Amino acid sequence: MITKRIIPCLDVKNGRVVKGVNFEGLSDVSSPVELARYYSENGADELVFYDITASAEGRELFTDILTEVASKIFIPLTVGGGINTLADFDRVLKCGADKVSVNSGAIRNPALIGEAAKRYGDQCVVISADVKRVDGVFRVFAKGGRENTGMEAISWIRHCVDMGAGEVVLNSIDTDGVKRGFDLEMLAAVCNAVKVPVIASGGAGKIEDFITLFHTLPGVDAGLAASIFHFGEVKISDLKEEMKKAGIPARLV
Amino acid sequence: MVAIIDYGVGNLFSLKSSLAAIGATATVTADRDVIRAADRVILPGVGAFGDAAEKLRATGLADVVTEVAKSGKPIMGICLGMQLLLEKSFEYGEHEGLGLIEGEIRPIAEVIPRELKIPHIGWNALHFCGNKHPLFKYLNEGDCVYFVHSYYGARCEGAVIATAEYGAALTAAVAKGNVMGCQFHPEKSGNAGLAILRAFCEMEGTVC
Description:
The structure holds two protein chains of two kinds. By secondary structure, chain A is an alpha/beta fold. Chain A is built from ten helices and twelve strands.
Protein backbone atom coordinates (compact mmCIF):
# COMPACT_ATOMS: atom_id res chain seq x y z
CA MET A 1 0.00 0.00 0.00
CA ILE A 2 1.30 3.40 -0.89
CA THR A 3 2.29 5.40 2.17
CA LYS A 4 1.34 8.97 3.03
CA ARG A 5 4.39 11.14 2.58
CA ILE A 6 5.82 13.51 5.19
CA ILE A 7 7.79 16.32 3.64
CA PRO A 8 9.90 18.91 5.43
CA CYS A 9 10.23 22.12 3.48
CA LEU A 10 13.43 24.11 3.58
CA ASP A 11 13.29 27.75 2.54
CA VAL A 12 16.79 28.68 1.49
CA LYS A 13 18.18 32.19 1.33
CA ASN A 14 21.85 32.86 0.69
CA GLY A 15 22.64 29.24 1.44
CA ARG A 16 20.82 29.03 4.78
CA VAL A 17 17.44 27.65 5.78
CA VAL A 18 14.88 30.20 6.90
CA LYS A 19 11.19 29.98 7.74
CA GLY A 20 8.73 32.79 7.76
CA VAL A 21 5.57 33.03 9.77
CA ASN A 22 2.85 34.15 7.39
CA PHE A 23 5.76 34.75 5.00
CA GLU A 24 7.25 37.51 7.10
CA GLY A 25 9.79 37.75 9.92
CA LEU A 26 12.32 35.30 8.51
CA SER A 27 14.79 33.79 10.92
CA ASP A 28 17.90 31.73 10.26
CA VAL A 29 17.45 28.11 11.23
CA SER A 30 20.30 25.90 10.04
CA SER A 31 22.47 24.58 7.28
CA PRO A 32 20.53 23.03 4.35
CA VAL A 33 22.91 20.10 3.99
CA GLU A 34 22.86 19.26 7.70
CA LEU A 35 19.09 19.60 7.92
CA ALA A 36 18.58 17.51 4.79
CA ARG A 37 20.81 14.75 6.10
CA TYR A 38 19.08 14.82 9.46
CA TYR A 39 15.66 14.57 7.85
CA SER A 40 16.68 11.86 5.44
CA GLU A 41 18.03 9.74 8.29
CA ASN A 42 15.02 10.37 10.48
CA GLY A 43 12.19 9.40 8.20
CA ALA A 44 11.44 12.26 5.81
CA ASP A 45 9.93 10.82 2.64
CA GLU A 46 10.95 13.69 0.44
CA LEU A 47 12.46 17.15 0.78
CA VAL A 48 11.34 20.42 -0.72
CA PHE A 49 13.81 23.24 -1.20
CA TYR A 50 12.48 26.69 -1.94
CA ASP A 51 15.03 29.17 -3.13
CA ILE A 52 13.79 32.51 -1.83
CA THR A 53 16.91 34.37 -2.95
CA ALA A 54 16.40 37.20 -5.40
CA SER A 55 19.98 37.88 -6.50
CA ALA A 56 22.05 36.04 -9.09
CA GLU A 57 24.79 35.36 -6.52
CA GLY A 58 22.25 33.88 -4.14
CA ARG A 59 20.94 31.70 -6.95
CA GLU A 60 24.39 30.37 -7.68
CA LEU A 61 24.91 29.66 -4.00
CA PHE A 62 21.62 27.76 -4.04
CA THR A 63 22.59 25.52 -6.92
CA ASP A 64 25.89 24.71 -5.17
CA ILE A 65 24.00 23.80 -2.00
CA LEU A 66 21.50 21.75 -3.99
CA THR A 67 24.25 19.80 -5.71
CA GLU A 68 25.81 19.03 -2.36
CA VAL A 69 22.50 17.93 -0.86
CA ALA A 70 21.64 15.78 -3.89
CA SER A 71 24.99 14.01 -3.81
CA LYS A 72 24.50 13.01 -0.17
CA ILE A 73 20.80 12.47 0.32
CA PHE A 74 18.97 9.70 -1.52
CA ILE A 75 15.33 10.54 -1.23
CA PRO A 76 13.30 12.56 -3.75
CA LEU A 77 14.11 16.27 -3.87
CA THR A 78 11.74 18.92 -5.10
CA VAL A 79 13.04 22.37 -5.87
CA GLY A 80 11.08 25.59 -6.20
CA GLY A 81 11.62 29.32 -6.15
CA GLY A 82 12.68 31.45 -9.07
CA ILE A 83 11.56 28.92 -11.66
CA ASN A 84 10.49 31.00 -14.65
CA THR A 85 11.87 29.27 -17.71
CA LEU A 86 12.80 25.85 -19.07
CA ALA A 87 16.41 26.87 -18.46
CA ASP A 88 15.56 27.14 -14.76
CA PHE A 89 14.12 23.62 -14.85
CA ASP A 90 17.27 22.42 -16.51
CA ARG A 91 19.52 24.20 -14.03
CA VAL A 92 18.02 22.56 -10.93
CA LEU A 93 17.46 19.13 -12.51
CA LYS A 94 21.14 19.01 -13.43
CA CYS A 95 21.97 19.67 -9.77
CA GLY A 96 20.07 16.56 -8.78
CA ALA A 97 16.48 17.73 -8.23
CA ASP A 98 13.81 15.17 -9.11
CA LYS A 99 10.83 17.49 -9.31
CA VAL A 100 10.52 21.18 -9.96
CA SER A 101 7.87 23.29 -8.37
CA VAL A 102 6.51 26.35 -10.17
CA ASN A 103 4.45 29.13 -8.67
CA SER A 104 4.79 32.75 -9.78
CA GLY A 105 6.61 31.60 -12.92
CA ALA A 106 3.52 29.70 -14.03
CA ILE A 107 1.26 32.63 -13.19
CA ARG A 108 3.34 34.89 -15.40
CA ASN A 109 3.66 32.29 -18.15
CA PRO A 110 1.18 29.40 -17.87
CA ALA A 111 2.65 27.78 -21.01
CA LEU A 112 5.74 26.94 -18.96
CA ILE A 113 3.89 24.03 -17.32
CA GLY A 114 3.02 22.34 -20.60
CA GLU A 115 6.47 22.89 -22.06
CA ALA A 116 8.20 21.50 -18.98
CA ALA A 117 5.84 18.52 -18.75
CA LYS A 118 6.51 17.68 -22.37
CA ARG A 119 10.26 17.84 -21.93
CA TYR A 120 10.70 16.31 -18.48
CA GLY A 121 7.46 14.39 -17.94
CA ASP A 122 4.37 15.24 -15.87
CA GLN A 123 5.85 13.62 -12.78
CA CYS A 124 8.58 16.26 -12.77
CA VAL A 125 6.30 19.29 -12.75
CA VAL A 126 4.72 20.41 -9.49
CA ILE A 127 2.31 23.33 -9.35
CA SER A 128 2.65 25.13 -6.06
CA ALA A 129 -0.19 27.50 -5.25
CA ASP A 130 -0.34 30.06 -2.44
CA VAL A 131 -4.04 30.47 -1.79
CA LYS A 132 -5.97 32.82 0.47
CA ARG A 133 -9.63 33.52 1.05
CA VAL A 134 -10.68 36.95 -0.17
CA ASP A 135 -14.35 37.75 0.49
CA GLY A 136 -15.08 34.05 0.76
CA VAL A 137 -13.39 33.11 -2.53
CA PHE A 138 -10.14 31.15 -2.83
CA ARG A 139 -7.68 33.42 -4.65
CA VAL A 140 -4.21 32.68 -5.99
CA PHE A 141 -1.46 34.88 -4.63
CA ALA A 142 1.88 35.49 -6.29
CA LYS A 143 5.29 36.71 -5.15
CA GLY A 144 5.50 34.66 -1.97
CA GLY A 145 1.96 35.46 -0.94
CA ARG A 146 2.22 39.23 -1.25
CA GLU A 147 0.22 39.85 -4.41
CA ASN A 148 -3.38 38.89 -5.12
CA THR A 149 -3.57 37.76 -8.74
CA GLY A 150 -7.37 37.86 -8.65
CA MET A 151 -7.50 34.35 -10.12
CA GLU A 152 -9.91 31.84 -8.61
CA ALA A 153 -7.69 29.15 -7.12
CA ILE A 154 -9.51 25.90 -7.86
CA SER A 155 -9.96 26.59 -11.55
CA TRP A 156 -6.33 27.77 -11.76
CA ILE A 157 -5.04 24.57 -10.17
CA ARG A 158 -7.27 22.43 -12.41
CA HIS A 159 -5.97 24.32 -15.44
CA CYS A 160 -2.35 23.69 -14.37
CA VAL A 161 -3.03 19.98 -14.00
CA ASP A 162 -4.73 19.88 -17.40
CA MET A 163 -1.58 21.43 -18.88
CA GLY A 164 0.60 18.73 -17.37
CA ALA A 165 1.40 19.45 -13.72
CA GLY A 166 1.80 16.05 -12.08
CA GLU A 167 1.42 17.13 -8.48
CA VAL A 168 -0.12 20.00 -6.51
CA VAL A 169 1.27 21.67 -3.42
CA LEU A 170 -1.52 23.67 -1.84
CA ASN A 171 -0.26 26.23 0.60
CA SER A 172 -3.00 27.97 2.51
CA ILE A 173 -1.90 31.46 3.42
CA ASP A 174 -4.81 31.60 5.86
CA THR A 175 -3.44 28.77 8.00
CA ASP A 176 0.30 29.16 7.29
CA GLY A 177 2.27 29.77 10.46
CA VAL A 178 -0.87 29.63 12.63
CA LYS A 179 -0.18 26.03 13.77
CA ARG A 180 -3.82 25.11 14.34
CA GLY A 181 -4.08 22.49 11.63
CA PHE A 182 -4.17 22.24 7.87
CA ASP A 183 -6.80 24.06 5.82
CA LEU A 184 -9.12 21.10 5.38
CA GLU A 185 -11.82 23.04 3.57
CA MET A 186 -9.44 24.42 0.96
CA LEU A 187 -7.71 21.05 0.53
CA ALA A 188 -11.03 19.24 0.07
CA ALA A 189 -11.91 21.63 -2.74
CA VAL A 190 -8.60 20.90 -4.49
CA CYS A 191 -8.83 17.12 -3.98
CA ASN A 192 -12.26 17.15 -5.58
CA ALA A 193 -10.96 19.08 -8.57
CA VAL A 194 -7.85 17.11 -9.58
CA LYS A 195 -6.69 13.49 -9.88
CA VAL A 196 -2.98 14.05 -9.31
CA PRO A 197 -1.29 13.85 -5.89
CA VAL A 198 -2.11 16.72 -3.54
CA ILE A 199 0.36 17.88 -0.91
CA ALA A 200 -1.05 19.82 2.03
CA SER A 201 0.96 22.77 3.26
CA GLY A 202 0.39 25.44 5.86
CA GLY A 203 -0.92 25.12 9.38
CA ALA A 204 0.58 22.00 10.96
CA GLY A 205 1.36 22.59 14.63
CA LYS A 206 1.35 19.11 16.11
CA ILE A 207 1.20 15.41 15.26
CA GLU A 208 -2.60 15.28 15.55
CA ASP A 209 -2.92 17.82 12.75
CA PHE A 210 -1.42 15.28 10.33
CA ILE A 211 -3.62 12.48 11.67
CA THR A 212 -6.70 14.66 11.21
CA LEU A 213 -5.55 15.64 7.73
CA PHE A 214 -5.14 12.07 6.45
CA HIS A 215 -8.26 10.75 8.22
CA THR A 216 -10.49 13.56 7.03
CA LEU A 217 -9.14 13.76 3.50
CA PRO A 218 -8.02 10.39 2.11
CA GLY A 219 -7.33 12.17 -1.18
CA VAL A 220 -4.38 14.07 0.31
CA ASP A 221 -1.12 12.24 -0.43
CA ALA A 222 1.36 14.14 1.67
CA GLY A 223 1.76 16.67 4.44
CA LEU A 224 4.39 19.37 4.21
CA ALA A 225 5.70 21.53 7.03
CA ALA A 226 8.77 23.53 7.96
CA SER A 227 9.25 25.20 11.34
CA ILE A 228 7.65 22.49 13.47
CA PHE A 229 10.21 20.07 12.06
CA HIS A 230 13.13 22.51 12.06
CA PHE A 231 12.61 23.48 15.70
CA GLY A 232 11.99 19.90 16.79
CA GLU A 233 8.39 20.50 17.93
CA VAL A 234 7.40 17.46 15.89
CA LYS A 235 9.83 14.59 15.32
CA ILE A 236 9.11 12.84 12.05
CA SER A 237 9.83 9.43 13.57
CA ASP A 238 7.22 10.07 16.31
CA LEU A 239 4.79 11.35 13.72
CA LYS A 240 5.21 8.20 11.62
CA GLU A 241 4.64 5.97 14.66
CA GLU A 242 1.45 7.82 15.50
CA MET A 243 0.28 7.59 11.89
CA LYS A 244 0.84 3.85 11.92
CA LYS A 245 -1.12 3.53 15.19
CA ALA A 246 -3.94 5.54 13.66
CA GLY A 247 -4.09 3.16 10.69
CA ILE A 248 -2.51 5.58 8.22
CA PRO A 249 0.05 3.89 5.95
CA ALA A 250 3.47 5.34 6.75
CA ARG A 251 7.06 4.43 5.96
CA LEU A 252 8.91 3.70 9.18
CA VAL A 253 12.69 3.92 9.18
CA MET B 1 33.60 -0.95 -11.81
CA VAL B 2 29.93 -0.25 -12.54
CA ALA B 3 29.05 1.14 -15.95
CA ILE B 4 25.94 3.31 -15.97
CA ILE B 5 24.78 3.38 -19.56
CA ASP B 6 24.30 6.92 -20.84
CA TYR B 7 22.00 7.00 -23.86
CA GLY B 8 20.66 10.50 -23.34
CA VAL B 9 17.67 9.51 -21.23
CA GLY B 10 17.22 10.94 -17.77
CA ASN B 11 19.29 12.37 -15.05
CA LEU B 12 22.08 10.14 -13.81
CA PHE B 13 23.39 12.42 -11.07
CA SER B 14 21.64 10.66 -8.18
CA LEU B 15 22.45 7.19 -9.42
CA LYS B 16 26.13 8.00 -9.70
CA SER B 17 26.12 9.70 -6.27
CA SER B 18 24.34 6.80 -4.60
CA LEU B 19 26.88 4.31 -5.98
CA ALA B 20 29.65 6.57 -4.70
CA ALA B 21 27.93 6.63 -1.30
CA ILE B 22 28.21 2.83 -1.00
CA GLY B 23 31.83 2.94 -2.09
CA ALA B 24 31.34 1.58 -5.61
CA THR B 25 33.33 2.95 -8.50
CA ALA B 26 30.88 3.97 -11.18
CA THR B 27 31.21 5.63 -14.52
CA VAL B 28 28.50 7.16 -16.68
CA THR B 29 29.34 6.14 -20.20
CA ALA B 30 28.15 5.57 -23.74
CA ASP B 31 31.43 3.90 -24.71
CA ARG B 32 30.81 0.28 -25.73
CA ASP B 33 34.29 -0.86 -24.75
CA VAL B 34 33.98 0.70 -21.30
CA ILE B 35 30.61 -1.02 -20.86
CA ARG B 36 32.03 -4.34 -22.04
CA ALA B 37 34.97 -4.00 -19.64
CA ALA B 38 32.80 -3.20 -16.60
CA ASP B 39 32.16 -5.78 -13.86
CA ARG B 40 28.50 -4.92 -13.84
CA VAL B 41 26.15 -2.67 -15.75
CA ILE B 42 23.15 -0.48 -14.92
CA LEU B 43 20.61 0.52 -17.56
CA PRO B 44 18.79 3.61 -16.22
CA GLY B 45 16.00 5.56 -17.85
CA VAL B 46 13.07 7.87 -17.39
CA GLY B 47 10.61 9.12 -19.97
CA ALA B 48 8.72 7.36 -22.71
CA PHE B 49 9.50 3.78 -23.75
CA GLY B 50 9.39 4.32 -27.53
CA ASP B 51 11.84 7.21 -27.45
CA ALA B 52 14.23 5.43 -25.14
CA ALA B 53 14.17 2.15 -27.09
CA GLU B 54 14.88 4.08 -30.27
CA LYS B 55 17.80 5.95 -28.68
CA LEU B 56 19.23 2.74 -27.28
CA ARG B 57 19.16 1.14 -30.73
CA ALA B 58 20.32 4.23 -32.62
CA THR B 59 23.42 4.47 -30.42
CA GLY B 60 24.15 0.78 -30.88
CA LEU B 61 23.97 0.32 -27.12
CA ALA B 62 21.03 -2.10 -27.31
CA ASP B 63 23.38 -4.72 -28.76
CA VAL B 64 25.92 -4.07 -26.02
CA VAL B 65 23.23 -4.56 -23.35
CA THR B 66 22.27 -7.88 -24.94
CA GLU B 67 25.92 -8.87 -25.15
CA VAL B 68 26.51 -8.06 -21.46
CA ALA B 69 23.36 -9.98 -20.52
CA LYS B 70 24.65 -13.03 -22.37
CA SER B 71 28.10 -12.70 -20.82
CA GLY B 72 26.66 -13.54 -17.39
CA LYS B 73 27.72 -10.26 -15.76
CA PRO B 74 25.19 -8.72 -13.39
CA ILE B 75 23.06 -6.18 -15.23
CA MET B 76 20.21 -4.18 -13.76
CA GLY B 77 17.60 -1.95 -15.36
CA ILE B 78 16.07 0.81 -13.30
CA CYS B 79 12.56 2.19 -13.90
CA LEU B 80 12.25 2.62 -17.66
CA GLY B 81 15.54 0.71 -17.86
CA MET B 82 13.75 -2.28 -16.31
CA GLN B 83 10.85 -1.93 -18.72
CA LEU B 84 13.24 -1.96 -21.69
CA LEU B 85 14.47 -5.41 -20.65
CA LEU B 86 11.05 -6.89 -21.44
CA GLU B 87 9.74 -7.90 -24.86
CA LYS B 88 7.51 -4.98 -25.73
CA SER B 89 5.59 -1.97 -24.46
CA PHE B 90 2.16 -0.54 -25.16
CA GLU B 91 3.06 2.99 -24.06
CA TYR B 92 1.84 5.29 -26.85
CA GLY B 93 1.67 2.58 -29.51
CA GLU B 94 3.56 -0.67 -29.56
CA HIS B 95 7.33 -0.79 -29.22
CA GLU B 96 9.88 -3.57 -29.20
CA GLY B 97 11.92 -4.00 -26.06
CA LEU B 98 15.18 -5.89 -25.63
CA GLY B 99 13.37 -9.16 -24.87
CA LEU B 100 15.87 -10.28 -22.24
CA ILE B 101 13.02 -11.08 -19.87
CA GLU B 102 9.60 -12.34 -20.93
CA GLY B 103 6.69 -9.95 -20.49
CA GLU B 104 5.29 -6.67 -21.70
CA ILE B 105 4.74 -3.16 -20.43
CA ARG B 106 1.10 -2.16 -20.06
CA PRO B 107 -0.78 0.80 -18.50
CA ILE B 108 -1.35 0.53 -14.75
CA ALA B 109 -4.84 1.90 -15.46
CA GLU B 110 -5.83 -1.50 -16.89
CA VAL B 111 -5.44 -3.27 -13.58
CA ILE B 112 -6.11 -0.82 -10.75
CA PRO B 113 -9.42 0.64 -9.51
CA ARG B 114 -10.42 3.89 -11.14
CA GLU B 115 -10.29 5.94 -7.97
CA LEU B 116 -6.53 5.37 -7.53
CA LYS B 117 -4.25 8.06 -8.87
CA ILE B 118 -1.88 7.57 -11.78
CA PRO B 119 1.13 7.67 -11.81
CA HIS B 120 1.78 5.31 -8.93
CA ILE B 121 4.02 7.76 -7.12
CA GLY B 122 5.54 7.57 -3.66
CA TRP B 123 6.88 5.05 -1.19
CA ASN B 124 5.40 1.58 -1.31
CA ALA B 125 6.22 -1.67 0.46
CA LEU B 126 8.04 -4.48 -1.35
CA HIS B 127 6.58 -7.96 -1.17
CA PHE B 128 9.04 -10.68 -2.12
CA CYS B 129 7.96 -13.50 -4.41
CA GLY B 130 9.20 -16.98 -3.54
CA ASN B 131 12.66 -17.12 -2.02
CA LYS B 132 14.18 -13.72 -1.33
CA HIS B 133 16.28 -12.74 -4.33
CA PRO B 134 19.97 -11.92 -3.63
CA LEU B 135 19.24 -8.32 -4.68
CA PHE B 136 17.18 -8.02 -1.49
CA LYS B 137 19.58 -9.75 0.86
CA TYR B 138 19.85 -6.69 3.12
CA LEU B 139 16.11 -5.92 3.01
CA ASN B 140 13.13 -7.14 4.96
CA GLU B 141 9.72 -8.00 3.59
CA GLY B 142 7.66 -4.80 3.68
CA ASP B 143 10.54 -2.34 3.35
CA CYS B 144 9.46 0.70 1.34
CA VAL B 145 11.01 1.98 -1.87
CA TYR B 146 10.20 4.94 -4.11
CA PHE B 147 8.09 4.48 -7.24
CA VAL B 148 7.13 6.83 -10.07
CA HIS B 149 5.46 5.09 -12.99
CA SER B 150 2.28 4.86 -15.05
CA TYR B 151 3.08 1.57 -16.83
CA TYR B 152 4.02 -1.77 -15.33
CA GLY B 153 5.49 -5.14 -16.23
CA ALA B 154 2.73 -7.59 -17.20
CA ARG B 155 2.87 -11.26 -18.20
CA CYS B 156 6.29 -11.63 -16.65
CA GLU B 157 5.11 -13.81 -13.75
CA GLY B 158 8.02 -16.21 -14.03
CA ALA B 159 10.53 -13.41 -13.54
CA VAL B 160 8.83 -11.32 -10.84
CA ILE B 161 10.90 -11.22 -7.64
CA ALA B 162 8.91 -8.51 -5.83
CA THR B 163 5.58 -6.76 -6.11
CA ALA B 164 4.01 -3.62 -4.64
CA GLU B 165 0.34 -3.39 -3.74
CA TYR B 166 -1.50 -0.52 -5.43
CA GLY B 167 -4.99 -1.72 -6.12
CA ALA B 168 -3.25 -4.72 -7.70
CA ALA B 169 0.04 -6.51 -7.14
CA LEU B 170 2.23 -4.46 -9.50
CA THR B 171 5.57 -5.79 -10.68
CA ALA B 172 8.22 -4.07 -8.56
CA ALA B 173 11.28 -6.08 -9.61
CA VAL B 174 12.16 -8.83 -12.06
CA ALA B 175 15.12 -11.13 -12.55
CA LYS B 176 16.23 -13.84 -14.89
CA GLY B 177 19.67 -15.12 -14.02
CA ASN B 178 22.12 -12.25 -14.19
CA VAL B 179 19.55 -9.86 -15.69
CA MET B 180 17.60 -7.86 -13.11
CA GLY B 181 15.28 -4.90 -13.09
CA CYS B 182 13.67 -2.58 -10.55
CA GLN B 183 10.57 -0.59 -11.40
CA PHE B 184 11.27 1.68 -8.41
CA HIS B 185 14.26 3.99 -7.99
CA PRO B 186 16.87 2.50 -5.61
CA GLU B 187 18.84 5.73 -5.91
CA LYS B 188 15.86 7.59 -4.40
CA SER B 189 14.82 4.98 -1.86
CA GLY B 190 16.94 5.99 1.09
CA ASN B 191 18.79 3.26 2.97
CA ALA B 192 16.66 0.47 1.47
CA GLY B 193 17.67 1.62 -2.00
CA LEU B 194 21.35 1.89 -1.11
CA ALA B 195 21.15 -1.65 0.31
CA ILE B 196 19.81 -2.95 -3.01
CA LEU B 197 22.61 -1.22 -4.91
CA ARG B 198 25.14 -2.65 -2.46
CA ALA B 199 23.76 -6.17 -2.99
CA PHE B 200 23.95 -5.66 -6.74
CA CYS B 201 27.54 -4.46 -6.52
CA GLU B 202 28.49 -7.51 -4.47
CA MET B 203 27.17 -10.02 -7.01
CA GLU B 204 29.75 -12.09 -8.80
CA GLY B 205 29.17 -13.19 -12.36
CA THR B 206 26.09 -15.29 -13.01
CA VAL B 207 23.74 -15.16 -10.06
CA CYS B 208 21.18 -17.74 -8.97
